[in-house]
Target: NADH dehydrogenase-like protein
Amino acid sequence: MRVLVLGAGYAGLTLARDLERRLPADADLTVVNDAPHHLVQHEVHRAIRRPAVADAIRVPLDEALDRAEVVVDRVTGVDRDARTVELAEGDAIDYDYCAVCLGAETAYYGIPGLESHSVPLKRVADAKAIRDRFFDDCDEGGTVVVGGAGLSGVQVAGELAALRDEEGAHADIVLVEQLDAVAPSFDESFQRAVRDELLDRGVDIRTETTVESVTDATVATDTGDIDYDLLVWTGGIAGDEAMGGERPAVRADLRLDRRTFVVGDADRAGERLRGAPRGEDGRRKRRRAGRVRDRRRRERLRPAARPLPLRGARLDCLGRRRCGRAGRPEHLPREGREGDESHRRGGTSHLRRGDFAGGRPRRRGTARLTRR
Model:
């Protein structure tokens, strides 16, 4: 049996390491990746300001994997009917089971001139290109436009602002976002904190601004043109070319078919094919659903032995709990009268849920519940 894992990003590497432990010894496991290392994607923006970070965020696959065979090549196509994977340079590879973990590429949404005049941020080479062009074109008074104020856009704008300040450059940094807030997929408190930090760093934030076209010197938006020297685009994601630029919707078990799976950013797991909310309305609905889900999760994780207030309960001189008038601790033992905080607050004692079994109080020492 041959199992293929296409891509060694977060999803691919995690899956491959798990399969190394779970697959039988006679199964062949092959990982195909376009580089001999795993890239810590969420740290790539740091290489704009600190190029030395590039070495630390690339993890050699032969060190991260034990038994898997690593093929360094670019996947150009997946034929699910023939169960073969096409490679840019090597021969096609047959498979019995395949997990497509190719991640996502930058989406340009068909905006005229955008792809040809902008720099994305997906790889270390992109971070280097942004840094080089910043010093070449913007050091003495240019303008950098960062398109898209999601997490990547916010990170890029922040790194460029810090680099400008460290180097004493005189560049303007403009962050453009189509929706009405920076980091629109996060909660409002996070959005405010990010916005305040960027403003403190001197970033010009323009929300509710849609990019319509790009030339070699101007970004045309629905609120006016912006002259620029460097354009960094982080405005969205699309599927890998090997998947036809699509991020297919998969079932709950991540299957495209019986023998092919799509994992990670390469798929649209959980998104409905029809009627899925889109745009800002969809984002608000997803945030609301996320808050409800988090609240329910917290309720499930809350300890079962929560104290239950029992108004008017007190202990008699034998240590037996009795129900009477609140605020009358005369029947409490001496240590209860002197140190019991609940009675000083107004005569409220607490009985734990665990004190009941089958609807009746559980004995703990000599304490028991009595009523007058």
Residues 114-233 form a domain with the FAD/NAD(P)-binding domain fold (CATH 3.50.50.60). The longest helix spans residues 279-301.
